[in-house]
Amino acid sequence: MTRSPSRGRQARSGRPRSLLALVAVPFVLGGILASKIATASSRRRERTPATTVDEPSYRVELGDTVSEIAIRHGLPTAHVLAQNGLSWKTPIFPGQLIRLDPIPDDLEWPTAETADGRPTPSA
Predict the structure, then answer these.
(1) Which residues on neighbouring strands pair with residue 119, listed in sequence order?
(2) Per residue in 92-115, pLDDT tens?
């Protein structure tokens, strides 16, 4: 006696195929929902203006370094790093926005001192 293939399908038609399918469905739906939320939030971020008119900045392109950007804009590299909260080893990426505020004119530089703490005599 051989078993008919259609007979086996009919017997299962009313029951779920497996418990795994029932467990996986909420996770799949949750993943889809999470991706929709992430996409919506990234679109919202893109709509906000990246800079204002008063804030000079530069958008990093492939192959740029902070040193090259600073030199092109006539600024010390250390100033650009400090302005943007970067260290000498922090990588920058294409599309990243780098602030390039000029050095203020009223900036007071520390005076040179001798080893005993007295100011050096001017020549």
Answers:
(1) 113
(2) 999 999 999 988 877 666 666 655
